[in-house]
Amino acid sequence: MTIQTRVQEQYELWLNDPAVDEATKAELRAIAGDPKEIEDRFYRDLEFGTGGLRGVIGAGTNRINAYTVARATQGLAQFLLNSGKSELSAVIAYDSRNQSPEFALETAKVLAGNGIKAYVFESLRPTPELSFAVRYLHAQAGVVITASHNPPEYNGYKVYGQDGDSWFRTMRSR
Length: 174
Description:
Blueprint: H1 3-16, H2 22-30, H3 35-42, E1 52-56, H4 66-81, E2 89-94, H5 100-113, E3 117-120, H6 127-136, E4 141-145, E5 154-161, H7 167-172
Parallel strand pairs: 2-3, 2-4
Antiparallel strand pairs: 1-5, 4-5
């Protein structure tokens, strides 16, 4: 299968999936005549890098959106559920970037759907406050929705371990 075939299949899957909301489908229909844009949005899955996901906000597998946030959160939930602990919780914070509150809520929904208690800050919070809250509440993980210093069209999803430190550093030290 060529990359162009895979890209087109992914694009069409999103367009035809009844679980994908109409606003996302409208965004995808608007780029129907732009093969380069379609390729950029679907040629790969947004990758988990140093501490989390970061990317341009928009529809597609190579963008940050409610669907890629939900997928990352499902992976986190599976990891936590496989830890063998009976009572699991996570803390979720977000900043002022576009769609941060919505992505935080999506994160909480996926965790709750997996039986993991989700503490969501009721307003904007800096990352250090998330780290403190993870330790204070004895949570097993934390998530902050932020893209830090990246341009405004970006957002991100950063994961923290139960010690309140970056997931990347926590996993490297094992």
